[in-house]
Amino acid sequence: MAPFSLHPWLLHQTRLSNSAVRLSQTVTVVRNLQGLPFPMRATAAQQETVTQQLREALEGLEDFKDEWVECPWNVASHRERILLKNLAGLEQSCDETVVWYHAKNFIHIVINDGEHIRFHLTSANGSLKNTWAALDTLEERLGEKLAYAFDPKSGFATSNPQVAGMGLDAQILLHLPAICFDRQLPKLIKAASEMNLKLEPLCVSDDKAVGHLFLLFNTANSGTDEKSLLAHIEDVAEKIIAEERRARKVMITEHADFTRDSLGRSLGLLGNCGELTFEEARHLLSIVVMAVDEGILPTPKRALLLRLWCSLGHARLCEFCQESIPSSDEDRVRAAVVKATMDRVLKQPTAAKRKVSRAV
Fold first, then answer.
1. Which of 127, 134, 196, 351 is the most exposed place for a label (fewest CB within 10 A)?
2. What are phi and psi of 100, to 5 degrees?
């Protein structure tokens, strides 16, 4: 088995889509085992039984030794635990929680975190259907050796009513700065709710969405099948994306002065700040990302900008800098990292370099 390393997790999380609005999609498939209580009611011995059964099933896969990495919660450092919570979506972790990830396709398998087994995959490109298909294939292969708790009438047993039946949760990460500016967000949230979906901020501070990032996800599974549910979420997402594109066009054409002023202020603060909070950095970089995506601020280093955008929290900032950062110095270090990275993002190649690039 490969050694415990979080490096591939970091690479995965910073690879966001080339789309200007839709940044990624995540699918989670939940399974529990017959004859064992849910993790919150199970003993340590029963939780270890779940871990052992899954380990034996994984060991039967051809690529197990070379490509699967085990990350036990009870031996992870404090910083690693924060990263595992963020990257694997841990919610009810305990000493018996274990995370496996596939080093090539970045599928995560989480054990004893609210449910016995959670298959989790975030992809930058493609569709919810394709993302789900990758998890479904693995889940079925392991299901040949595991006894899932299943009832023909009610479906797969879960501790979360939201994913009862299919044991499926799907979400799409959207960047919606123009919709926020256009004050259309409450209308879209209400419309999504009426279609059994939820649109909510990825991060909230003082009752405000930080960085204009939103998740669209299902709130119920009953009365439908996997493909229909995923198609429904995709359809609603496309409508929201179309609305964001319309709002961006209006913002750029009819409110050009405001747009230029917002971008100028953002670049000025990002390039000259001595300290920068997480909320400030997320908000300012959101405006810069939109400007890059709309061609207002051309740069060949969008990927680096997105990596910076995703590395503003304390644990991710430490990983970005490859060193531990005291909490008292966090805002100062964040400002220094942002300034240095923005200089690289905005630096234009010299005429000689451009000529060489064209020749190549």
1. 351
2. -110, 145
What is the value of pTM for the model shown? 0.86
Out of 39-53, 102-116, 171-185, least confident range: 102-116
Scanning 176-301, the segments in alpha helix (DSSP H) are 177-181, 185-194, 226-254, 256-272, 278-293
- Which residue, of 248, 268, 297, is where some domain finishes? 248
Q: What is the DSSP letter of 235?
A: H
Based on the fold, state whether residues 48 and 116 are members of the same structural domain. Answer: yes
Distance CA 162, CA 146 (A): 23
CATH of the domain at 136: 3.30.590.10
Helix (H) or strand (E) holding 320: helix 314-321
- pLDDT per position as a tens digit, 22-73: 998 999 999 999 999 998 888 999 999 999 999 999 988 887 777 788 888 8
Query: Domain residues for 284?
Result: 256-348
SS3 assignment, position 75: helix
- The total number of structural domains in the chain stands at 2
Whole-angstrom distance, CA of residue 302 vs CA of residue 201: 23
Domain membership flag for residue 78 = yes
Predicted confidence at residue 1, as pLDDT, reads 37
